[in-house]
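Fold sample X.
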Amino acid sequence: MAELRTKLKEVMLECDRLAEVLKTEQTNHAQTRKSLTAVIGDTIDQLAKERRTDRSQPESEVKS
């Protein structure tokens, strides 16, 4: 019986440890997603700005 209790404690500690690791991983994943979304948004904004600039230049300036 004592052996089972010891094993149960070990398993419960491992479960707690894994739950903490999962929580950390979820937090990191959310931060990564947020950062990537911001970078994608910035890139789209920059591309749109460059396209507007290209369209506003006269044809002769675009070819040079």
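Fold sample Y, listed below.
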Amino acid sequence: MGLRRKANSFVFRYLFLLISHSEAEFILLNLGICNCFLAWLGFNQQIPHRVEDPKTVVAFEEFCRDRLSHAEIVDILEGRSPLEAVVEDILLKMHIQAKCRALCMDALSHIRRKAFHIQQIERIAKIPVNEDNQEAFPLFYEVWAALDDREVPESFEVTKSIGKGEVDYPSWGDLGFQTPLTDFRMTGLLGLKCLHHVSTEFKARARQVLAATSNTDTWLPCAITSVNVTAWVMEDAKKDKLSVFLYKDYSATSQIFYTLHAFYFFSFVNYWNNSDAKTILDFKKVSEGFRDYIIIELEKITDAYISMKNYEEGYMNAILLDSISKL
């Protein structure tokens, strides 16, 4: 494998010289071997002004992280310097020709947009959900109204477990809470907003999930599951596993994140139902398998998105919604 890798590296570097492109340009232009030989034979290549394939941005970001200092990467991600100044610096350091300036700027703008999305997500997640946060109360009440036709529980302290006490007495435990005002420690207000979104925007389906998972031996507490799912999406986003969804989509940060959460949530419910889980104690084992499974499923969606070559604003959010409808 080592010799093969070296041979491949030699061939590609030789091709770089033949077509007068730097390695960074090779990535930005998404060149393959056929492109290399066409260029070598003298066919002129038209330089696009924007990156169409989000996987190209992924590759370019990885290349930047390998070649630039930590301070330079932070400058790209946090927007400390104007984008134009960053682009000029990148062109110089990575030997990118001026004719690729617009393409480089487009790629860097996507990378910066993704970083902005993640910063916004983290900011909302740091807002605590407790008795002092008045913004949280209406969200709780709307979640209840979306999932249960009874009167809202008289207080957040009413959290009896499923199947105990008076069956018809409304309790936050009926929705899968332990203690609503402390259940969002991991995810803050972001977790509550994700639960609110999946409950109100997918009301009928969320009710079906609640009914199907509340009265079985493999009881799955919906609210707590949603909190865990929010944490998974946050973690995957910060580990750059969801980059293609955050690069190219111009939807509001919250919208694309809420849609990703809904896709994860309903996918996990299906995964749980098809697993060999016997009790809620199997949650950790099942969720570990799901974390790998969901990334593979998202890659399939990404490949479909790229093959359709439809890059209109909000399309990534739309294709996720379509995928949810097919679960």
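Sample Y note: The chain has two domains: 2-124, 136-325.
Also: The chain has a mean pLDDT of 85.
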